[in-house]
Amino acid sequence: MKAGIIITGSGSVLALTSSDSFDDPDLAKALLEKGINKYIAFEVPEDLVRSQYGQHYSVILTDRSQSDILRIVDVDGQRIFRNFDLKALSRPVCHEGPDVVMMRAA
Predict the structure, then answer these.
(1) What pLDDT, in 10s, does the model give residues 83-94?
(2) At 100, phi and psi to the nearest 5?
(3) Which regions of 1-106 does DSSP assign to beta strands (E)?
(4) Starting at the edge strand that comes first in sequence, how are the strands of the sheet with 93-96 ordered?
(5) What is the SS3 assignment for 3?
(6) Can you give the pLDDT at residue 96?
(7) For the segment 35-53, what is each residue's pLDDT rounded down to a tens digit?
(8) What is the DSSP letter of 84?
(9) Global confidence as pTM
(10) Which residues pair with 44 in a beta bridge?
(11) Of the candidates 3, 1, 19, which has an alpha carbon nearest to the alpha carbon of residue 89?
(12) How confident is the model at residue 103 (pLDDT cuts 50, 70, 90)?
């Protein structure tokens, strides 16, 4: 699983995905199904998410109401930003609209 902070128009979410990267079209489709068609994603180390969220992380991994393509760990943007140093973030992956190819910021 990969972990990432996804910044949307309505706030930030912390998510896990079985995708190889945050520019995977299947992940974009899963986000679109949740009403998210424009976002900026930053990968964070999965080990860091596991250590920050402990038992909650384990519960999310076994939650049968979520799929491996997109598992939401946290929707509280303030808590997410408190839990992760900005230097732990990857380069951003930007996505806008269902017809636009994902692009990685330079």
Answers:
(1) 999 988 888 998
(2) -100, 135
(3) 2-8, 11-17, 38-44, 71-74, 93-96, 103-104
(4) 71-74, 11-17, 2-8, 38-44, 93-96, 103-104
(5) strand
(6) 85
(7) 998 999 999 999 999 999 9
(8) S
(9) 0.87
(10) 3
(11) 3
(12) low
